[in-house]
Structure formats: structure tokens, C-alpha cells
Amino acid sequence: GDGRMGMIYDGNDVQFSSRARVKFTMTGESDAGLSFGGSFRVDQENYSANEYRSAARGTAGQVWISGTYGKLSMGDVVSASEAAIGDLYEIGYTEGAFAGDIEEISYLTGDGENLDQGANILYEYGIEGFTFFASATDGSDTNLGSISPGANVDDELNASSDDVAYSLAAKYEAGNYNVGLGYGKHGDADEIVLGGEVTYDQFSVKGIYAKYSDRFTGELDAEEFDSTIGLAAAYQADALLVKGFWRQDKFKYDVAGDEKFDSFGIGADYDLGGGATLAGGIIDSDYLDDTVADLGVKFKF
Amino acid sequence: GDGRMGMIYDGNDVQFSSRARVKFTMTGESDAGLSFGGSFRVDQENYSANEYRSAARGTAGQVWISGTYGKLSMGDVVSASEAAIGDLYEIGYTEGAFAGDIEEISYLTGDGENLDQGANILYEYGIEGFTFFASATDGSDTNLGSISPGANVDDELNASSDDVAYSLAAKYEAGNYNVGLGYGKHGDADEIVLGGEVTYDQFSVKGIYAKYSDRFTGELDAEEFDSTIGLAAAYQADALLVKGFWRQDKFKYDVAGDEKFDSFGIGADYDLGGGATLAGGIIDSDYLDDTVADLGVKFKF
Amino acid sequence: GDGRMGMIYDGNDVQFSSRARVKFTMTGESDAGLSFGGSFRVDQENYSANEYRSAARGTAGQVWISGTYGKLSMGDVVSASEAAIGDLYEIGYTEGAFAGDIEEISYLTGDGENLDQGANILYEYGIEGFTFFASATDGSDTNLGSISPGANVDDELNASSDDVAYSLAAKYEAGNYNVGLGYGKHGDADEIVLGGEVTYDQFSVKGIYAKYSDRFTGELDAEEFDSTIGLAAAYQADALLVKGFWRQDKFKYDVAGDEKFDSFGIGADYDLGGGATLAGGIIDSDYLDDTVADLGVKFKF
Hints:
- The structure is a homotrimer.
- The first copy, chain A, is built from one helix and 17 strands.
- By secondary structure, chain A is an all-beta fold.
- Chain A has a single domain, classed as Porin (Beta Barrel).
- The first copy, chain A, has a 17-stranded antiparallel sheet.
- The longest helix of chain A is centred in the N-terminal third of the chain and has 6 residues, at 80-85.
């Protein structure tokens, strides 16, 4: 499990914020040596309250089977692109949540995006430094109750919840660096994401570029999410870890032209040992009216 | 805990379906040797979301106390009839859920049917091959919040949620066969259920006949659930288990006369060892527009 | 975990009532010797259903950090007053729930009262028989989603959910007695609570007096909760524990003058060993139309 306690400055007030969570991880092995398992947190089981956040309905947590031919996961899995590239560095004791998790790259598919089709799948296969990823939905939003939740939109409406969402990606890892390339598609929209990370002595740097096509947000003036460029850096000195990131998101409009949103963050973690970490962060984002900050302790049990 | 992952053919589309669940089982023993316990799954606790599926409210999971005088259980227990006779064989990796659990006999009381009166009770006592069962509700739908949820229907409406629902049953088990007889009553409606199962070498056969009286479904034309006859068979060959069932439900109407609904299912389980089973099934039912099927892996942890 | 099963007489009907619960307690220790932890029950995690009863949102359960300078807890903590003084003795197998937990003193702040501001804090420090307590909310009801739930009432309405609620208290414990004094304030309302408990041989007696000012209930005729006086006594004889309490609550009105509500309760616990206790109680309260009772078994696992 994990926990945290501390304070958040929301731009106007300082607020207390805490949480306690428990995660279950179950594993087994077949006679032929296939390993399998399942995992979810207590807060990911909302059987009666939310069919899209329920491990027993396949829309939260995940199950997997793994062998020499790779690993197949099903449930609320990340997309291939996200599995290969990931997000920018999390800062603060709430791990970015105090600023709406702005360090997270907005992947087109998976990771909670396509659960209106029920469980998603992710396949991973690694060979000689390369890892290949493929993820997909089933392309059907027909609701089958507890076994396949779904948006159940009338077929004549051509809902995107009836389009297969998929993603393909590859990652190459060498001694002190890795690079990843991902492609995702859902309906008319697609994404190409490129990422890389280098570690040198106590420094780490990570860069991500994501380019979207026909990714309309549904907002006025035909708002279209065009691209994101992000950079994160970290410096480790004994128990102290200083981290920062910058990202810029570009939106296009029919009439108003382009608009860019910048976000900056800087933070530090101090490892208290035994699973406790003192952490704080400051984030300034064009998405937010105010600069926000957090400071507190986070626990791993 | 348990988990599963695989695909379901819903008659039109193939859909991914997975789940992960955790079950808690707690036990103890008093100084005088009474054993007691409680059990529920995480998805059976929906405290704020659903008062009829909450272990902390007594409407999911169960608690029990057991000694030389038998076992008394309270909560979301099965009825006496169901405890004695049970259901037809489950097929597929979703254990029948891909066809709406049509292998389950529709018992009049208990097993989720009478939770609008709060917790149900079940008493079991075994002696020399015989087991006797009695189950009941308390006959009151008055809602007492967390300690006794209830439908709280106005007494003047004579709601069935204010009628005691009860069931009595007996089962006899010998070396390779067992037979059971159950009676259930709720308001004007009653049931008589007869079941038996024989195991011979690698073969098992189970038959169930349930006859209902005055069991109106609330549908048009005074629809009345009249009876169910069901038959299930299984054949075990090493790791392979082949199973099938047939059932026929009869409904009566005021104007339209009678109608019968047939359902067939066949499936196979292949034990992979270590708690993993590869399983698939096909079910064709008059209740469903299409023949449906599933194929996947199920896990026990 | 814990469980219970038995019967409640609600004044008109006898009802079955049972429950099963599981509690998680996680602990750790930092390199410098600070101990920390978190705890919550499964039923206290209602992530999607209820933002005010969710351990992952800080509104149920709690996390804490503890060292030589005291213990700081955050989440759904009790107020300083309640931590120092507590409630009257619980009776019955449902521990007072069969009568709406009338043995509980109505503290002005904390213990579920102020979660419309998100997580609450409680600080405790003990020295030479004295324990000092301080608790508070953050004075902001701004909703920050999962990290700080809140009522989000328009600031111009001067909602009490934007007033800091706090409490200060002290307790002194000697060999066989303890006394506590607490003060609480939220907006215009405040409380002063005085309590004491003496244990002599097999007898225990506890008294509590709470005086409120400007504590309007929102009911008609400017109903104001004025004060509570309560007395509880217990007698232990081997496995048998007999308990009783009386409390009187006084309300003031603009037009109608004063009104007093008396409540009496008596009950007995019989320890069966191994965590099982047979218990029953009877409560007569002016708040209830009828005398109510319960009888059953409760379990600790």
C-alpha cells in the first residue's frame, strides 16, 4: 500500500490533503511455466458505483499472462505508446496531482481513455535491448453488464466508442539511455510519439514529442489538440532528488489560429528511509489561473 | 482471489473481457470450540453506492457460527433449496456469465433475491449422509440504515418485501450420488425443487426439476414462471473436462397460453496447473437473439 | 477484521442484522526512527460513490507520522475534544447502532463532521500523565478532485464549510482515573466538554458534560443544541460485562423555550473467547418512538 499527508497551495488557500491506499497483487505459475497474475487497488473497485473503474468488470487494475512469447495484459492497461515512452517526471508529495497531473503526456488510447469499450489489451515482447508493444480495444461498446461494460451508443450514430483504438510502439534500451517511438489510432485521430531518456552520473534528462492528427477536443471553434513537446530533468545527490519539467501543448482552431500552453514544474524529494519521502513541488501552468505548490510526506508500505 | 481474461462473442462482436477480484475469509474459534467466520470480496463492499451489495450492511458476503448443532450463516446467503440442490454446470472461462448465467436455477428465495429485507439466514445440519437446510428472511423491510437495509415500502401497500421468505430442504449423499428436495415460499408464490447427481467413473450427470406456483413475473398478460427442467453432464479425461447442459423453462399466460424457452450449452476446461485453466463455451438460448461463446483463461490465486 | 450477526427489535419488528468488515493497517519506520502508518476499512473506500467516505481522497481512514515530538494524523480523524474524552459505553452486539449510536457525544468538529473541507488533522503530545490534543480543518472547501474534496460553496454565501473548525483539549490519566477538558469552535458555534472516568475494582464510571453556544441545528424555531450531560457505568464479573448509560440533551428555541431529550441504555457482553462475544442491549430514548433492543454475537478476527 501507500499513503501521504501534507499541504497543497491551490493558488488561493492552503489545504490539507492525505490518502491511504492498499494494492493487491496476486501471482501464480502454470505447470508449463507460464506466469500469470492480477492486481488492483481497493479504490479501483467501484462495482456498483462506476462500471468504468471496477477491477471485477475489467475496467480498473489488470490481469496478465507471461511466458517466453511475451506478456499479455488485459484491463485498464496503458497504450503501447505510453508503455514505451511514459510521462515526464512527477514532482511533489502528491506526484503532480496538485496541478492536475500536468506531467502526464496525453496519449490517444489506453490508460483509462477507451474503457467505454470495456477491457483493453497490451502485448509486450522483449529481445536484445528492444521491447515491442501493441495495444488495442475490441471495437465494440456493447454493454454486457459485469463482463464487458460499454457506452452502448446507438450504432447509427457512428460513435468513436465503436471504433477500434490501437497503438504500436518500440523501445530500445542501452546502458545509460533509452529511446521509444509510438503510434496510436482511434477513429480519424492518430498520434506519433517520440521519446528518449539519458542518465549520466547523477543527472537524468528525458524528452518527449507527441504529434496528433485530427484529434478534435469537442470544444468550440473546432479546437484540435495538435502537439506536445516536453522535457524533464533530475539530479540525485544522496537522499535528495531535485526534479523539474517543462511542456508546451499546441492547439489549432478554425478561426482563431493557434494557441500554445506552457507548463513548468520544479520539485524535490528527500528520502527519509523505510519507505517515507519528504517531497514538495511548485507548478506554473497556462492551464491554471495560479501557481500551485505542495509539501508533505509520502509513504510506501 | 481470482482473475480471468479472454474473449466473448456476443452474437455480433468479439469483445475482450477480464477481471481481478480479491476475497477475504476470516475465521476464529471460541473457547468452547464454536468456529465462526466471515467472508466477502472487495467488489461486494459498496457501502455508499449500493445498500444491497455491501458486506458491512449484511447484504453481501456472510458471517457464520458453527458447532455440533450445525452451522448458522447470515448475510447474502443462498436459500435452503439452493444449498441442497444448486445449479447446472458452469461452462466457459466466464463461468456462464457470457450468456447471463443461464445455467443457474431461479430459486424463489435467498441468494440476492430478498435483500430488500436486509440480511437473510441459512441453517445447515448434517447427520449420517443427510443434510437439512432452513433459510428465511425476517419479514420486515423497515430500513435501519447500515444495520438493516430495506425497501421501506409503505405497509398499506402489502409489499412482498414485508412477507417472510423461507425455504426448507434436505439432501442425501451416498458414495457416488446425491439427491435433494427443496421447498420455498414467499408471499403467495412457492417452489418445489428436486435434484440429483450421479458420478460414474469419469462421467457426472445432474438433473434438476423446479415447479413454481403463483410466481408472477410482473410482465404483461399475467406472465407466470411455471417450471424449469434442467440436465447437465460432464466428462473428465486427465486435464480436460467437457461439460454441457440443457434446460427448459415454461411460462404461462392468461391469454396467450404457454410458452417454453430452451437453452443449451457446451464447453470445455483444460487445467494448466497452478490455478490456471483454459476454458471456452458455447451457449444457445431462446432468451438470447444469438448464439454466444467465450474463450479465455481463468485463474485462482 | 470484524463481524457480527444477530437480531434487532426496532420497536415493531425483529430484524436480522449482520456484517463483515476488513481493516487494513500499514506501518513503517524511517531511518531516523519516525514511525508512520495508514489505516482504513474496505467499506471506507468509496472512490466513485462518495468523495466524503474515501480513504484514497483523505476523507475516511487516516495516515499518521509519530515521533518524540508527538503524533500527527490526517484524514477522517476525531477532534481534540473527542480524542481526550470520547463517548459513553457502547452496548449491544451492534455497539449502539440499533439505537442510532445514541451513546456517542455530538462533538462540534472532526470525526466526519468537517469533511466538506477535505482531510482534517489531529496532533497529540503526551508528557507525564498529560496528553494534549489539537485538531483543525484547513478552512477551505475548494474542491480539488481526488486530492482535496470539498463542498465548493460560493464564497459570497459565507458557508461554514469555509470557516476553520478547530479543537483544543487536554487529558490527565492517573492510576485508576482520568479527566479531560476540551474546547471546539466552528464559525460562531463553540463547545466546552468536560469528562472523567474512574475504575474501582470491577466497577467503571464515566461522566461527560458538553455545553454548546450558538450551535443552531437549522431546524424550525431557531432550534439550538444547548448541552448534553451523560453518565455511563460498567461492572465486570469474569467473562460477563454489564454496562449502562444515561444521557440528557437540552435544546433551546426562540418561541417554544427549552426541551430535554433523555436516553437510557443497559446491556451485557459475555466473552466467549477467541474473539467472539455474545452481547445484547436495550435502549429507551426520547428520540425514538419505541424502546429498541438487540441480541447477537460479535467477532474480532
